[in-house]
Amino acid sequence: MKTPAGIYIHIPFCAVKCMYCDFYSIAEREDSIPRFINAITTEIERCNMDVSDWGIDTIFIGGGTPSLIDGHFIESILTSLQNSFDISSVKEFTMEANPGESPKDRLMDFRSLGINRISMGVQSLEPTLLKFLTRIHSVEQVFETYENARSVGFHNVNCDLIYSIPGQTWDIWERDMERIIELEPNHISAYTLTLEKGTDLFKLVKDKKVTMPEDGQTAEWFLKTHEIMESYGYSSYEISNFSKPKMECQHNLHYWRIHPYLAFGPSAHGFDGQNRWNNSRSMDHYLQQIESNKSPVSMKETLTQKDLLNEMIGFGLRMKDGINLSKIPEKFKNKFSGNLIVAEKKWEGCFIQTEKSISLTKTGMVYGDAIGVDLMVD
Amino acid sequence: MKTAHIRNFCIIAHIDHGKSTLADRLLEETNTLSKKDMKAQVLDSMDLERERGITIKSHPIRMEYQHSDGNCYVLNLIDTPGHVDFSYEVSRSLAACEGALLLVDAAQGVEAQTVSNTYLAIENDLTIIPILNKVDLPSAMVEDVKIQMMELIGCDENEIIEASAKSGIGIQDIFDAIISRIDPPKNNVEDKTRALIFDSVYDNYKGAIPYVRVFDGVLKPGMTAQFFSHGREYEITETGHFILDKVKTNELRSGEVGYVVASIRDMAHIEPGDTITVKENKADKRLPGYKKIKPMVFSGLYPAEADDYDQLRQALEKLQLNDASLEFTPETSQALGFGFRCGFLGLLHMEIIQERLEREFDLDLVTTTPNVVYEVLLRTGETIKVDTPAKMPSTSDMQAILEPIVSAEILTPKEYIGSIMTLCQKKRGIYKNTQYLSPEKAQLHYDLPLGEIIFDYYDKLKSISSGYASFDYEFKAFEKAQLQKLDILIHSESVDALSTICHADDAYHRGVALCSKLKELIPRQMFEVAIQAAINSRIIARTTVRALKKNVTAKCYGGDISRKRKLWDKQKKGKKRMKMIGKVEVPQEALLAVLQVDND
To answer: What is the pLDDT of residue A174?
Structure first.
């Protein structure tokens, strides 16, 4: 059987950089789009990795704001992918789209290219909070873009939401959730706002101009959010991800299940089962490298068996399915069980154990990172 | 070699006063070692010794010196450690010598350590050669320090040699003084054989090797060595001198310093201070030994990983081969599992052993707060020694607790006398007297409880005197004191490793300080953790570590798995030294919290 795998394409263009976002993106560089498309197609076509035993079943075009790009550009990327890899078994093909930045005709083009899943960056339905987050769309545009996506034939739509934002009350968040749930998207990602170094938000908090909500409140909202999502039939298959039955994001599951994936575009991260690498996090450097026939890869590391296991533990615990015990290498089994015994004492009521897996209860998820670290082997 | 042409001597000096540099210079001048072979400071052969600028073990080195009187002399330099913890080793070295070079830094003046070691040398009837080192430094206080040295040993000014080991000033005068002032060993080669063991090493192939000073008679391969203390016999297979390595000789004669190989498998059979004789020429009476100092400071050493217990035991056994003053016995702690209670000569000795275990044996250790040894007079009339607070009997079973008192001397420039006295009072010191070594330098005498000085006394002394005061102590007696056992409870469980013994007047204050320090050090758990201090099960202080509310990253996608894993790796590393006490995870640092509690 072939190893399940995915392909990630990073399109870094944005109209405006959001104050909390630490993905690689650039604003006001639309003039570079054609040059970038040339480069990324070259990068794809030049890729000579042997992926013959991979079963590539997902493609994800993320960003940035890929919906800013015209359909014909996306088409040339697709053509390159088709020329280079067997993508005939792709079941899930996602594109990220922002409300107000994905006109209906462009959505139609995307759909006709075979893209079958739209991931919408909604984030909030409260105008003041959208403003705080430096989002440039209105609440109305959220509904408009959602309707457009549905009407052009996207049967799989995700809405990204953010909560525990400074100034947000529980009532605002609960109303947001309910209004989105009413739309019946197939998938909802609900993240608590995370402070990332290098963002404007980080600086505001550091300068004490903004105070992040307290952990206690965030934890409480986290648990209540899970309850509400599940009461509407959205299963929480990952710490921040909810879906209707069988509508889990297959591409993200590849990451979390430590499956391999190819990656193209500046800052994109790839993995072949043994090595992890990423491209340069600078558009100019990325372009220069490709145009001068050099590799855009800026970091590459080879994982040890232990690294792989620790990734499996850390990411496994974030999923409802938990850590698959049969995947723990024999030589680490004792160590892992030892860690588990100690962790069970410390993290009372946090584990769900079956013969085949270890996963976390809701309470456990609140401490997911700390618990993961306790189970990892050294 | 005629006995008349042998000189056995040591160097007494405070840390950084230039002992190793002088030794290097002597080695160079006698061509014992060429300049190109010279690692800076040959004597300090352990990495740790070189890094810390201290000497831990006694190293003997034999030099051949061609004197202007036409004779060739053998100079045996028996190196001595320079730290307060190792005065025991000093007395071992002194017993093997006829003379001592007293080396004093002209910019620093006489220091406490120098004083106590000089007294030891005078007690041992050694000829003292006073040397004022670093006279070429701009900050040298030649006249004042000379007054201090004259006061210390009662010599004349013209006996003091002005030198700079670094730039070679006065080296010739030092050689001349060694030859002319230090007596040669007595020639007792016809007498019954007696050799004093002053140190030993363990060699994997040759077994335990005693370092000896032969006082009477001869030791030769083929003879049967006999030890006075236990009477065991071993055939001598090799004798030799120390050049830099060991060099075989046909024999060791009266007056000589060297080593003896006799296939001695058990290190415990070689007790420094013991006398070796030979069956072929057997002596009836042993040489006067020197008193062995018992460890006074104890601490629990536990492997961070329970699996490493055996490795820790083996490592301790190996260290003990070359460090007879290290003691250890197995111990079990509820909090820490299986480990060892180890006895040390002092805090520095403890630190050095811990560092060696971690570096040379690659062990991760968890150590408990050090404590002194107590004598407890039970109601039954029996007296017992208690070396761990957890084993202190209950108050109702005890008549009295006695703690070790040391007699301490502190040397300081006179302007710091006031603050040093305040410090000593705080540490329950009893003032004895003050003497002046010179108009500038005072010598304070105090009786101090050892338990009060093993923590931060030395650091405090240094900081209030801008580093100028120095300090030395020796054990005086066990004395009754109003002591109490202070227990710490974490999440309602008493933590044996955190129990301490302290003075009744200090208990409340210390309990409060300890609780608030632990609050800082214990990471938040899922639940609220109460930290309590108790005396006789009565709670006297309490703090709370608030519950951890959340520790999870919301967003984990975009394929950047590496960054997340590296973050986890880092957290994992930080957790290496954590221990579970009941349901609470406690960092090793917290177990040493007592050391960080400021008693001000």
So the answer is: 98
* Separation CA B141–CA B163 (nearest Å): 13
pLDDT in tens, B416-468: 999 999 999 999 999 999 999 888 889 999 999 999 888 778 888 988 998 88
Separation in Å, CA of B311 to nearest CA in chain A: 18
**Contact A240/B at CB under 8 A:** yes
> Are residues B466 and B386 part of one domain?
yes
DSSP letters of B156-201? -GGGSEE-BTTTTBTHHHHHHHHHHHSPPPP--TTSPBEEEEEEEE
| CATH architecture designation of domain A305-375 | Orthogonal Bundle (1.10)
- Give the nearest chain B residue to A193 (CA atoms): B554
Please give, rounded to a whole number of angstroms, the shortest distance from the CA of A370 to a CA of chain B. Answer: 6
Q: Is the domain of B449 the same as that of B495?
A: no
Interface confidence, given as ipTM, is: 0.92
Determine the distance in angstroms separating the CA of A360 from the nearest CA of chain B, rounded to an integer.
12
Residue B577: exposure state from Cβ atoms within 10 A (0-12, 13-18, ≥19): middle
Give per-residue pLDDT as tens, B317-330: 888 877 777 889 99
Tell me: do B530 and B588 sit in the same domain: yes
A315 touches chain B (CB under 8 A): yes
- Cα(A367)–Cα(B548) distance, rounded to whole angstroms? 8
Q: Where in chain A is the domain with CATH 1.10.10?
A: 305-375
Q: Tell me whether residues A239 and B550 touch, CB distance under 8 A.
A: no
Distance CA B454, CA B371 (A): 8
Cβ neighbours around B349 below 10 Å, total? 25
Task: Report how many domains make up chain B.
Answer: 5
Residues B68 and B210 in one domain: no
- Which residues face B208 on adjacent strands? B202, B264
Task: Note whether B555 contacts A: Cβ–Cβ < 8 A.
Answer: yes
**φ and ψ at B383, to 5 degrees?**
-110, 130
- CATH at B168: 3.40.50.300
Q: How far is B329 from chain A (nearest CA, A)?
A: 27
Contact B518, B588 (CB under 8 A): no
Smallest Cβ–Cβ distance between A252 and the set B550, B557, B576 belongs to B557
Instruction: Determine the 3-state secondary structure of A301 from DSSP.
Output: strand
Considering the domain architecture, whether residues B169 and B213 belong to the same structural domain is answered as: no
- The answer to whether residues B168 and B71 belong to one domain is yes
Whether the Cβ atoms of residue B316 and residue B260 lie closer than 8 Å to each other: no
Is residue B63 a contact partner of residue B26, using CB atoms and an 8 Å limit?
yes
B560 closest CB neighbour out of A269, A345, A366: A269
B187 located within any domain = no
Token readout for B295 is: 């460890």
Closest Cα to residue B430, out of B449, B412, B453?
B449
- The CATH class for the domain spanning A3-256 reads alpha beta
Q: Angle at which helices A170-183 and A215-231 pack, to 10 degrees?
A: 30
Confidence (pTM)? 0.69
Residue corresponding to tokens 């509904």? A143
B268 and A CB contact within 8 Å: no
DSSP, collapsed to helix, strand or coil, labels residue A254 as: helix
Q: Considering all CA atoms of chain A, what is the largest pairwise distance in Å, rounded to the nearest integer?
A: 58
Closest CA to A14 of A1, A29, A4: A29
Q: With a cut of 50, which residues of chain A have pLDDT below it?
A: none
Asked if the model's pLDDT at residue B581 lies above 90, the reply is no
Write out the two tokens for A276: 């992890």
H-assigned helices in A278-329: 283-291, 305-316
Q: Give the range of the structural domain holding residue B317, as residue numbers without chain letter.
A: 297-370
Mean pLDDT value across chain B: 86
Find chain A residues with C-beta within 8 A of B562's C-beta.
Answer: 269, 276, 278, 299, 301
- Reported as type and span, the H/E element at residue B61 is strand B60-66
